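Obj: model holo form, ligand = zinc ion.
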Amino acid sequence: MKTLWTVPLVLGMFCMANVACTADTGEDTTGGASDGDENKEVSEDELRSSLYTGSALPAKTLAWTVDDGPNGSTVEIAKYLAEEGVPATFFVLGRQVTGTSTRDSWVAKGKPGVTAAMKTVLDTVVGLPVKGSNLHHLIASHTFTHGDPMVSLTTTARQGEMRDAMTLIEPWIEGRMHLVRTPYGSWSSNVFKDLSAVSGSSTYVGNIFWNAGGDFDCVLNGSTWTCPNGAADWACWKPGKGRPAVSPEVCAQGYLNEIEGRGGKRGVVLTHDVSANSLAMTKIVIPALKAKGYTFVRLDQVPQINADLKAVGATPAPALSTPTAPPATTPACREGGVYCGGMYSKIGGEKGTLYRCVNGKISIMYHCADTCKSQPSGTPDSCRSDGVSGP
Ligand SMILES: [Zn+2]
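Output (holo structure tokens):
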């Protein structure tokens, strides 16, 4: 199993009191590691830095992920995202695809395979063409049960959770991209060691963490919720005692606030497909992000994930290259005059440079201090201000 260690990591239970760790247990998941003497708290920052995220993506670039399915909303979410040109990764559960509740009950039933209904769901999700690209959604592993966090399980249980889920979803894995996200992001050196001993795990890449969507950071004032710094969809829909649920609109605003704020305007976004409210929220967040100029890549295009997938023999989509300015053309001219350069100029050349054309020969007049101002045909172009420097 390939993983990303930048610190000597031990305890890997990333769950704070108000952190979104699960969509479906509702349990207090704070603390709770049991790796014996290897247990030692590491700071949240240290833990984050040791997990795959999308922090290295260019600004305003996001990779969308959907956890805990397949569920009733999965196909609709997948269709919506495909239509919107958003290639997503669905981290699914073994218990969901087999229609069982836990790995133990699945074993007791004789390890049934993927149900016919779930085969159809998975076929549909990976078969949808993502508009404006040649990509499809990915299926990835979120383990079998989504029960206790990985760090709390025995070696045997950890390995079974991982191996059996991956084996079940193997037919829907594209390009040997065995991406892993443990429930709650639970991770430790022992978990890594145990999972690395699973047969076939040499192609696994994980643990895939996130940059936004993990923290339920909403504030209740009277009966009104606001989510100024972030939100987590699974928690938005779970009202507590005397506590109303957060609406899809307010939860969506929380996602936007986190992506634009501490998310650093880039990264991996964590959502879930357990509730139809997440579909409603997604339909609010995606257009809002697009309006702000965000674009979407698939998880395997995140630079570090891409590199490590290739390193284990998978065939990810081309890595995202940092956009570079198109090469400046060599300026050429026929009509005498003074012209601004640039890719839309009839003389070519560089943007922000003023050229003179005499007898078919071109030379630089000025590198404009600000911008070069084009004038109607017949009038010489000029730098917008007087602040210019010679060639
Ligand atoms: Zn989950």
